[in-house]
Amino acid sequence: MHPLQWLGQRDRDFAALRRAGRTAIVMPAMFAVGDKVIGNAEVATFAAFGSFAMLLLVDFGGPMAERLQAQAALVIVGGVFVCMGTLAAQTVWLAAAAMAAVGFGVIFAGVVSSVLAGATTALLLAFILPVSLAGPVASVPDRLAGWGMAGGAALAAVALLWPAPVRDPLRGAAITACRALAARLRSEVAYLLSGADRQFAHDRDHAAGQADHAVRALHRAFLATPYRPTGLSTAARTVVRLVDEVTWLNTIVVQSAQRAEGAVVNRAACAVKNAAAAVLERGADLLEVTGGNSDELHAALAKLTDALTGLERSATADLPVRRVSSGSGPVAAPVPAPAPAPASEFITSLDPSFRAQELSFAVSLIARNADLTAGAERRSWRARLLGRQPEGLAGTLSAAQERAAAHVERHSVWLHNSARGAAGLGLAVLIAQLTGVQHSFWVVLGTLSVLRSNALNTGQNVVRALLGTVAGFIIGAALLAVIGTNTTVLWFVLPPVILLAGVAPAAISFAAGQAAFTLTLVILFNIIQPAGWRIGLLRIEDIALGCVVSLVVGTLFWPRGAGAALRQALAEAYADSARYLAGAVNFGMLHCDGGKPAPAAPADDAARAAAAARRLDDTFRTYLAERGAKPIPLADVTRLVTGVAALRLAADALLDLWQRDDGQAAGDRTAARNEILKTTELTKAWYDDLAGTLINGRQPREPLPHDKTADGRLIEAVRHDLLGEDGKASATAVRMIWTGGHLDAVRRLQTAIIS
Fold first, then answer.
1. What 3-state class would DSSP assign to 723?
2. Higher model confidence: residue 300 or residue 433?
3. Are 363 and 249 in contact, with CB atoms under 8 Å apart?
4. Per-residue pLDDT tens for 279-296?
5. CA angle 142, 143, 149 (to 5 degrees)
6. How many CB atoms lie within 10 A of CB 213?
7. Rounded (10°) CA dihedral 72, 75, 78, 83
8. Contacts of 742 (CB under 8 A, 6+ apart)
9. CA-to-CA distance for 610 and 597, rounded, in angstroms?
């Protein structure tokens, strides 16, 4: 196999090679300027390690302008950390406390934005270096000059040296999924209207397979990073919402394709599906360009609204509430029928319209986020600078506060990791200062590199780090035995070794990366102050000390890692989402009571459910990133995680359903309301019990059976109490039945979750 093919299989898009190539050029150049031109060891050291941090340890994505903005912000914040670290290093206890505080703040800030999460290690190195290297306050200007040199060179290198193409895999996958779902809807409608033609059936099945594949690809792209792939930019925040919405829409489309044998084609529902397909296509078109015009999407949404209105009108007219035969069909006049239509006929007649209504809501959510994305991208530079958001979207600061607040909770795995990292880094600085090791920052770097979310993974990384460091020391000692202290030769060897250090972790292994990094440090410090192989020996000692610190911290602070936290996060997410579902139903039941003031929407329940879902997402990513056997099969975990999103979005749909009701229907709603509330109580109790079993390890209850008797009671209540003056079901009656449909969908979800 060709070396580039081999590397390409291990280094996607050659991202590591790009970073390593830039660093191999810039780092030696900045080091040479500081050491040979300026002749200042402080400037040289910070210029070298600053280049390493800002080019090798971080790789911002997005358009070039956004990358350069993020890179410039990294330079500025890193410069502040260099000053703070140097000042704090003057006192041992202050250095340790400051390292712990900065470590916690930087790691925890990653929950707010993927940009911050991706820059975590680079930001930490900007503080670790000055707080660990002894130096007077007077050295701050030299250190800052070295960091600033590295920052300027990094900005130029990112823009000019092999700039990566603009990558937004999540957005591209969302566009593909929207188009595939639109094709699926159109093919399904064509099949129904064709009278079950074989060719149309083949086209429908093909489109269904393509849609399933596209939705799975979107989900894989979403879970491909160890942190939530969204920044604080408005467009990034709206695009990431599409993942749950598109996945839920695909589930709805699958269910809507199921028809009772011999059922009459509901043309109003078909019209909604065609209109929904058009909305998905216009939304995909809008996402495909940056800052596109939303007029076509708005027009498609207007047609979807008209189709939905027609569906609701058709549902009230066609319900078998009172029918009589007159030879040619049903008579519109409200005359008594010999016998009411059976419950099964009542439900069957409404099922296509319910599915179409549910589908239209999911499509509207997707369209809204596509519209917000385009609106955010159309903003002027001045509007972006002032933080003006498209209508209906929270500002950047509000979004950051909301994300951070979601994890200020004792079971948050991100909070655990932040506290664990802070304790490890603070303890490493304290021990390094008290023991007086020669290169104390190696102790802290060793702690940072091996500390993971559980004790087992930390222990495994300790072994890899020590083996890699020993290997790097042996290679470095052998190299120095041949070269000696000839700095000219070491200068020539430095760039390829840096290149290897950048590529090895991605292409070979973590241990290989440690070996290459050790070799880089041996050469670097022998150029500054020739000391031969002893530098490598000191590196082994310091890394070993850092590994011991990591083992102690990893054992004392939440040693079980993300496995236990995942169960807790799932339990909280299901309990909070079930509470939100019950709140949405209660809102609807009170909202349709025209004799009372309209109730407030359950905003607090919605916010709590969203926060729990966000914690679950981050915990699931940590669980996926952990090495070793998984106590819960991955397929089962994925079903549980996606079930939370479906439950929460069903509550959103119910809320939207009743917010569109005017609450003016005639008739007594008490009997129908009581039936729905009973079903809601049973459904919430089942999900609460599921949450309990996730924590205590018991087997979950069997899914709730389909209670046809309860269906009959609800229908009789609607038939008896919620008729219009013409003897037909009112719009409120239809919404009552559709509410029962949403609850039944949530009941069927139980089987998918625990199967």
1. strand
2. 300
3. yes
4. 999 999 999 888 788 899
5. 90
6. 13
7. -120
8. 354, 358, 650, 653, 654, 657
9. 27
Specify whether the CB–CB gap between 165 and 69 falls below 8 A.
no
Most confident by average pLDDT, 286-295, 308-317, 335-344, 517-526: 286-295
pTM for this predicted structure: 0.74
Cα–chain-centroid distance for residue 731? 38
Burial annotation 168-185 (CB, 10 A radius, 16+ → b, else e): bbbbebbbbbbbbbbbbb
* 66 or 95: which leads in pLDDT: 95
Whether residue 351 is predicted with pLDDT greater than 80 in this model: the reply is: no
Q: Which residues contact 63 (CB under 8 A, 6 or more apart)?
A: 166, 290
Give dist(CA 565, CA 558) in Å, integer: 9
Cα 733 from Cα 588, distance rounded (Å):
12
Give the tokens for residue 503: 């590529």
Assigned token pair, 389: 């958001």
Tokens of 113: 């934005």
pLDDT score for 334: 44
Report the SS3 class of residue 729. Answer: strand
Q: Pull the structure tokens for residue 339.
A: 């016998």
Give the three-class secondary structure for 325.
strand
Residue with tokens 């280094």: 11
Q: Helices marked H in 1-139 — which ranges?
A: 3-10, 15-32, 41-51, 64-88, 92-109, 114-118, 120-132
The encoded tokens of residue 381 equal 């530079």
d(CA 345, CA 124): 65
Question: What sign results for the dihedral spanned by CA atoms 156, 159, 162, 167?
Answer: positive
Given this model, what pLDDT does residue 466 score?
64
Q: What three-state secondary structure class fits 142?
A: helix
Q: Write out pLDDT tens, residues 370-427.
A: 888 888 777 665 555 445 556 655 566 666 777 788 788 887 878 888 888 888 888 8
